[in-house]
């Protein structure tokens, strides 16, 4: 994952950069003779068009040379016919023959050297950076050009398929639905399992605060030795995002993409004519032909337009720099009314002062999202409705046919108003004190605010709810604010072959959340929509509410790492977290880690293999991390709440509010703790291939879950407690290859594979005994009230389908089922794959990427309910049902649990870079196709089903928002002085 | 500049030093120790004991006394109601089929629902008693409050006694030891003594919807009426004595006024659980559980009536117990259902007309229109999902019928006649010349159909154990339900009821 482009990172350590500059200046010896000389000027860039300050320009075979200045400019006097060698650490040296025809200025672009880059590439490790070569933990890095490109609606999607062990799933094709991430299998039954996001050093922020175009690099901290520095929030891994910043020069760039998308798949339901011929052929009693020919799925859809524009500007000199950007995108959803519009802007500025002793960084990110939430019930209705029913009746009104689950989905979709908005704001002010070259102090103050507004109006004509409510309007508002202070000192010193880096710090986080909501019904007119709640005349208790809560987290942390001769490295970290959420008996958690690495390739005995084995490093680590997301506020206390609990007071003939205890208090409540071992091997072969292999084993103890407790004696039936144990074991392989690399033609490939095995080890302790937890609820499906499809049970992974084994149909078309319920599959993939290739030929480029998941099962509850002999003629069925021979009522069994393995061709891009030197430093046009193909044997609309959460992971049940296939055209322009 | 930096550093250190406080700050909630000190706060606490009677819905069970599933369990187990499986609808893991056939097992979710209804209510009352203990009220002020709370708790224990028999008795909120079963007799004695001890402090006057002396007398009468069935000790005379204590009520000439949307004015109601959807009450939607999916068009021209799920209906045989002249026959809805918009009979998805019939041809695959419907409570156009009528728990007709039954059982049927005449007269029927237990049994069905108490009557009359529609004979031990398996799993001190 570690390729080119170090320039974004260098400014972060300006002092380091200055050192490099000085060093290079000392090394370069200028000696020139005055005969047949020629002066060559120019600028040195990297492949992204960023100037390379400090690059060396040498006349081959002589000591004549110079170094590029801060803006990448150089000037050198050379002999005609000689060869100039332009080099820079981490880049492939480029020779240029100078003759009479050589133009001046001579601008040179250097290509990154994948292997040697490790020596200087800096990796964010939390509260600082480390040289990649010194790392002892498992950390994957994704640079900006490796991120997924396209008409993305969430920043998570930019990482999909890019990191071994990181699964990103967007459960539906709805642009506003967001994506979820899971690293190495997830560790919690209760919390989100999303990794901790750190943006520019600020932990715990919303990843969508930053847009993919503004990301310079993403470092994914995977093992506990790397994440333990984040203590009680590190158990699910840490994703550190470093945004683009700027040190020198001026540039403006624009990137835009515009495309059209359409549904990639549908369920094949009977068309009106198929329905008619079935009804006639079977002489079905009671079939009503309404005369139309309606494809209800298509009636909900449209060709959707997607457009995105990003404008960014950066400028800077030796002592200051700034970068700002604005992004606007409008991603329409293929289901009418849906989509996501986002406007986002960010600016970051830095300034050195006092001889570079102090550096100030100020950053501000803001986004506004707007979307129209969808009533997902429309999908089931679209499958139910008889295809002969017209969408509109002869008067132009929506056709209404009575019956349960038979409402006109087009009416549901279009006949109500939902407008939601989310504002995100993240700001920080960071001060870095360089007390001495070795000792540095950092103080970072930050604030994040995330505010959501939701508006709904269901007019008095709307069939579902609106009509019985006489018009229904609702407004909700919720927001949270994180205020954080981080302060730490770090010390770095080299003594001969010894290198020591130590840091220690403190952080304080205060999280406040609050919200309110109001709803009314009984409107005389539908004209106000949700804008005048006071006009609703039907008022009920609970129509208005508000809430507020707060938590804080106090932490002390330290890390030391020592390396000897770049061969042996040791890192140790500790963190102590105290949280207001923890129960009285467990206020402080302690999270240690230690790891070692051996850089075998640097050993003398390896000299003989250096020609093919460029890099070989063995790492091993152990650590303890925590997860406290699952606790929530006030869960340890005995609390009286007031809510829907009203009582009648006959004395005043009125209703009053009762105050009652709402939860079982648990003063022992604490974080979930995860112990993890990791062994890794980094290697580089033939100067063209790099890779790493990781093995890990992690065990999560004190699993938080809302366990069912006996009644009596407990007040309520459930209680949040730390009880169970869960394990994840797996391996990951990452490979990057620079297969062909010559002037005209380049071919890069990358591949990542990961495999994880999960198991519930324990669900009971001395106090709580749980044999099995039922999950994967089928509630809401007809005839399946209070039925569950999955179990959480010792010895099985989360999301294990538990039901009757079906060996098909008997001669009467009834399901043949096993006597007992058993394990009939699970949602855990056995293999995750991400693959990408880039080809460049002259000015043309071509790339594709894809990802896949293999071995996971999905319950196709949609088909389970649709393949029902009771449905015809009133309800529609899939084409295939007629040949299926099924005569039994819908029954949950392995018959409907399908292997949902798939490989998705995520992105195919064909681009052309217009060669020009003057006005634009870069102009690239491209055509892109997203989600062009899915290879799967799964029978539903899409095999990629939401796998997160406990409620219904891996359940395909009428939430079939089809994924779009998108074709777009894009343009990138960069302007520089 | 340097000075500024020093200032920043010093400030940082100061902030650091002060920021290690980890107490939780509460904004929209109160901790239990902080509440219950003023009379208003005490009232708000006691109010919670009454609101608990409406039941609840959580991730484990729907525990509503009005339908899902406390009511369903008791009704389907009786001879007056059933929930047939209609196609795929209302199968739900076979829980209704099991209950109809009296073959329920300890995993039946409806049984858990009933258990949790009672124990959640009991724990809530215990927690309120604990709050009152902590409050600054004088001991004299506390006594009537304790009496009221313990009487409500006794009502929950009465229902446990009736449904489960051998259940743990817990009275201390802070004691979280896993309790063991008490015997059915111990539970019976506990209910009796709690009510008798509370009586002196309960209010004598009629206070609608509150636990007064009259409510306690009626509940004690119920206890004594079923004493033989519960613990094998016949106490017919005690039952009559308690009934005689009940005063101030009368039979409402309009039978259905007791079940009107605004039924709180009826002087027949001794105890009811008040509902008002505007006050946010939930769980009161039985009408939507019984009528056909298209029923809304028989109530309103525009279909302005909530969705209905076509579930629970009368067990075949119950409807025929009514004479045509019996006004109470309208408790059950039979026949063609007319679309108010067109004036013609509604047509179902199958193309057949919607005619509610008493017969149900195939219990496990019933037609949508089969089974007459529960229609005791008023149905009104424009109603919301949550209905507004109060849920009737005890009414004066029961006090009359209990006395009549006791006299018949004690061999003096003629002493029963004046009570039975009052009931028959209002219904538009006549008491027969010969009054026997069969008549009492049928009259109880006609009078109290779908009031959630038929299972207890069936057990007392013994018919419960005989075969009836879609049911073989029932072994005696099934006169109480099994203790829910999930509770046994979590509490090893708890023993299953005999023979389960």
UniProtKB/TrEMBL annotation, chain A:
Bilayer-crossing regions: none
Which of UniProt's keywords are assigned here? Cell outer membrane, Membrane, Receptor, Signal, TonB box, Transmembrane, Transmembrane beta strand, Transport
Q: Where is the TonB-dependent receptor-like beta-barrel domain?
A: 375-932
Checking SUPFAM superfamilies in the record gives: Carboxypeptidase regulatory domain-like (SSF49464), Porins (SSF56935)
Q: Transport as a keyword?
A: yes
PROSITE patterns for the chain: TONB_DEPENDENT_REC_3
What family does the Swiss-Prot or TrEMBL record give for this protein?
Belongs to the TonB-dependent receptor family.
State what protein this is by name. TonB-dependent receptor
From TrEMBL, chain B:
Instruction: Cite the SusD-like N-terminal domain residue spans from the record.
Output: 97-225
Extent of the signal sequence:
none
UniProt entry keywords in alphabetical sequence = Cell outer membrane, Membrane, Signal
Q: What is its main location?
A: membrane
Q: Where in the cell is it found?
A: Cell outer membrane
A Pfam family matched in the record: SusD_RagB
Q: Quote the CDD domains the UniProt record gives.
A: SusD
**Matching InterPro entries:** SusD-like_N (IPR033985), SusD_RagB_dom (IPR012944), TPR-like_helical_dom_sf (IPR011990)
Residues covered by the RagB/SusD domain: 319-500
Q: Which family does it belong to?
A: Belongs to the SusD family.
Name this polypeptide is given? RagB/SusD family nutrient uptake outer membrane protein
């Amino acid at each position: 994952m570690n390729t080119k482009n170090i320039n974004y990172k260098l400014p972060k350590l300006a002092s380091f950069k200055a050192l490099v500059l000085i060093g290079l200046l000392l090394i370069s010896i200028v000696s020139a003779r005055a005969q047949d000389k020629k002066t060559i000027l120019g600028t040195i860039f990297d492949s992204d068009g960023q100037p390379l300050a400090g690059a060396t320009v040498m006349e081959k075979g002589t000591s004549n040379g110079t170094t590029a200045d801060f803006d990448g400019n150089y000037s050198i006097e050379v002999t005609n016919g000689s060869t100039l060698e332009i080099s820079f650490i981490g880049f492939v040296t480029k020779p240029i023959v100078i003759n009479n025809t050589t133009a001046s200025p001579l601008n040179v672009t250097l290509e990154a050297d994948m292997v040697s880059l490790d020596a200087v590439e800096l990796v964010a490790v939390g509260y600082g950076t480390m040289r990649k070569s010194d790392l002892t933990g498992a950390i994957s890095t994704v640079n900006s050009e490796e991120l997924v490109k396209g008409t993305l609606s969430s920043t998570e999607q930019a990482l999909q398929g890019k990191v071994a062990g990181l699964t990103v799933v967007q459960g539906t094709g709805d642009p506003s639905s967001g994506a979820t991430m899971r690293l190495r299998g997830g560790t919690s039954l209760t919390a989100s399992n999303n990794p901790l996001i750190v943006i520019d050093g600020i932990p715990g922020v919303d990843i969508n605060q930053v847009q993919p175009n503004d990301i310079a690099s993403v470092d994914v901290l995977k093992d506990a030795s790397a994440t333990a520095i984040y203590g009680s929030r590190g158990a699910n891994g840490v994703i550190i995002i470093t945004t683009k910043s700027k040190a020198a020069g001026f540039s403006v760039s624009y990137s835009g993409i515009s495309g059209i998308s359409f549904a990639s798949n549908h369920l094949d339901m009977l068309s009106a004519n198929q329905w008619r011929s079935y009804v006639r052929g079977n002489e079905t009693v009671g079939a009503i032909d309404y005369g139309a020919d309606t494809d209800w799925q298509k009636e909900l859809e449209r060709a959707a337009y997607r457009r995105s524009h990003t404008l960014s500007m950066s400028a800077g000199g030796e002592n200051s720099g700034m970068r700002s950007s604005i992004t606007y995108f409008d991603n329409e959803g293929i289901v009418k009314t849906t989509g996501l519009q986002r406007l986002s802007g960010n600016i970051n500025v830095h300034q050195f002062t006092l001889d570079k002793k102090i550096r100030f960084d100020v950053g501000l990110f803001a986004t506004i999202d707007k979307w129209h939430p969808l009533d997902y019930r429309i999908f089931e209705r679209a499958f139910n409705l008889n295809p002969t029913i017209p969408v509109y009746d002869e008067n132009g009104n929506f056709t209404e046919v009575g019956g349960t689950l038979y409402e006109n989905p087009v009416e549901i979709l279009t006949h109500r108003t939902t407008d939601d908005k989310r504002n995100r704001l993240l700001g920080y002010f960071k001060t870095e004190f360089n007390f001495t070259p070795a000792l540095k102090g950092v103080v970072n103050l930050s604030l994040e605010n995330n505010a959501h507004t939701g508006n709904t109006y269901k007019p008095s004509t709307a069939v579902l709810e609106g009509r019985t409510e006489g018009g229904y309007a609702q407004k909700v508002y919720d927001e949270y604010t994180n205020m954080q202070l981080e302060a730490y000192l770090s010390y770095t010193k080299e003594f001969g072959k010894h290198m020591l880096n130590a840091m220690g710090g403190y952080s304080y986080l205060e999280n406040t959340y609050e919200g309110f909501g109001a709803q009314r019904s009984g409107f005389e007119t539908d004209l106000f929509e949700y804008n005048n709640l006071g006009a609703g005349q039907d008022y009920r208790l609970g129509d208005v509410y508000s809430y507020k809560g707060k938590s804080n987290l106090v932490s002390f942390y330290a890390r030391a790492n020592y390396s000897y001769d770049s061969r042996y490295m040791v890192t140790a970290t500790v963190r102590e977290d105290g949280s207001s959420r923890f129960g009285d008996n467990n206020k402080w958690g302690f999270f240690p880690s230690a790891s070692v690495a051996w850089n075998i390739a640097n050993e003398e005995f390896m000299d003989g293999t250096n020609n093919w084995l460029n890099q070989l490093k063995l790492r091993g680590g152990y650590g303890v991390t925590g997860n406290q997301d699952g606790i929530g506020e006030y869960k340890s206390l005995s609390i009286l709440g007031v809510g829907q609990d009203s009582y009648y007071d006959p004395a005043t003939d009125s209703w009053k509010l009762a105050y009652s205890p709402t939860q079982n208090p648990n003063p022992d409540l604490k974080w979930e703790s995860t112990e993890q071992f990791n062994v890794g091997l980094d290697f580089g072969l033939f100067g063209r291939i790099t890779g790493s292999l990781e093995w890990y084993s992690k065990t999560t103890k004190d699993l938080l879950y809302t366990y069912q407790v006996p009644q009596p004696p407990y007040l309520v039936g459930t209680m949040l407690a730390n009880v169970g144990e869960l394990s994840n074991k797996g391996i990951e392989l990452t490979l990057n290859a620079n297969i062909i690399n010559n002037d005209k033609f380049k071919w890069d490939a990358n591949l990542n594979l990961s495999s994880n095995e999960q198991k519930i080890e324990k669900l009971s302790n001395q106090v709580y005994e749980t044999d099995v937890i039922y999950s994967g609820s089928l509630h809401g499906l007809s005839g399946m009230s209070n039925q569950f499809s999955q179990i959480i049970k010792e010895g099985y992974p989360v999301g294990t389908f538990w039901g009757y084994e079906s060996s098909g149909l008997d001669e009467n078309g009834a399901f043949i089922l096993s006597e007992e319920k058993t394990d009939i599959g699970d949602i855990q993939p056995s293999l995750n794959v991400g693959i990408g290739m880039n080809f460049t030929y002259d000015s043309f480029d071509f790339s594709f990427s894809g990802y896949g998941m293999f071995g996971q099962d999905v319950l196709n509850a949609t088909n389970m309910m649709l393949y029902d002999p009771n449905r015809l003629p009133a309800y529609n069925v899939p084409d295939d049902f007629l040949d299926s021979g099924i005569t039994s009522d819908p029954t949950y069994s392995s018959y409907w649990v399908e292997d949902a393995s798939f490989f998705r061709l995520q992105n195919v891009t064909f681009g052309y870079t217009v060669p020009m030197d003057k006005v634009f430093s870069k102009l690239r046009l491209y055509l892109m196709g997203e989600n062009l193909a899915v290879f799967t044997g799964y029978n539903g609309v899409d095999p990629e089903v939401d796998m997160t959460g406990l409620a219904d992971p891996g359940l395909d049940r009428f939430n079939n928002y089809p994924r779009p296939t998108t074709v777009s055209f894009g343009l990138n322009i960069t302007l520089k002085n | 500049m340097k000075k500024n930096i020093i200032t920043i550093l010093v400030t940082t250190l100061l902030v650091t030093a002060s920021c290690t406080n980890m107490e939780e700050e509460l904004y929209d909630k109160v901790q239990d120790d902080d509440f219950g000190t003023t009379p208003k706060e005490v009232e708000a606490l006691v109010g919670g004991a009454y609101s608990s009677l409406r039941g609840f819905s959580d991730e484990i069970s729907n525990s509503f006394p009005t339908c899902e599933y406390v009511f369903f369990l008791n009704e389907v187990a009786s001879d007056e109601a059933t929930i047939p499986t209609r196609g795929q609808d209302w199968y739900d893991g076979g829980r209704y089929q099991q209950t109809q056939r009296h073959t329920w097992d300890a995993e039946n979710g409806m049984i858990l629902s009933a258990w949790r209804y009672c124990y959640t209510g009991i724990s809530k009352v215990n927690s309120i008693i604990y709050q009152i203990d902590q409050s600054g009220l004088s001991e004299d002020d506390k006594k009537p409050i304790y009496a009221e709370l313990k009487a409500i708790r006794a009502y929950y224990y009465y229902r446990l006694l009736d449904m489960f028999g051998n259940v743990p008795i817990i009275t201390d909120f802070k004691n979280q030891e896993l309790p063991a079963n008490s015997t059915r007799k111990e539970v019976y004695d506990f209910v009796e003594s709690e009510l008798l001890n509370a009586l002196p402090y309960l209010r004598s006057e009629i206070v609608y919807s509150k636990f007064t002396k009259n409510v306690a007398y009626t509940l004690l009468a119920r206890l004594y009426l079923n004493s033989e069935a519960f613990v094998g000790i016949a106490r017919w005379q005690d039952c009559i004595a308690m009934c005689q204590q009940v005063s101030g009520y009368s039979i409402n000439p309009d039978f259905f006024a007791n079940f009107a949307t605004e039924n709180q004015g009826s002087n027949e109601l001794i105890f009811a659980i008040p509902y008002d959807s505007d006050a946010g009450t939930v769980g009161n939607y039985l009408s939507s559980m019984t009528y056909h999916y298209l029923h809304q068009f028989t109530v309103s021209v525009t279909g302005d009536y909530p969705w209905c799920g076509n579930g629970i209906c009368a067990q075949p045989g119950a409807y025929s117990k009514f004479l045509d002249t019996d006004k109470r026959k309208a408790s059950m809805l039979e026949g063609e259902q007319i679309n108010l918009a067109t004036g013609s009979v509604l047509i179902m998805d199958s193309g057949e007309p919607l005619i509610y019939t008493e017969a149900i041809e195939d219990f496990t695959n019933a037609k949508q229109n089969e089974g007459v419907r529960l229609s005791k409570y008023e149905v009104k156009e424009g109603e919301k999902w949550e209905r507004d009528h109060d849920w009737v728990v005890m009414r004066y007709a029961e006090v009359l019928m209990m006395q009549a039954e006791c006299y018949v059982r004690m061999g003096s049927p003629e002493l029963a006649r004046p009570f039975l005449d009052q009931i028959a007269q209002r219904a538009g029927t006549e008491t027969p010349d010969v009054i026997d237990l069969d008549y009492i049994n049928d009259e109880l069905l006609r009078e109290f159909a779908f009031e959630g108490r038929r299972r207890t009557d069936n057990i007392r009359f013994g018919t419960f154990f005989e075969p009836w529609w879609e049911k073989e004979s029932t072994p005696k031990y099934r006169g109480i339900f099994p203790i829910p398996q999930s509770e046994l799993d979590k509490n090893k001190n708890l023993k299953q009821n005999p023979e389960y």
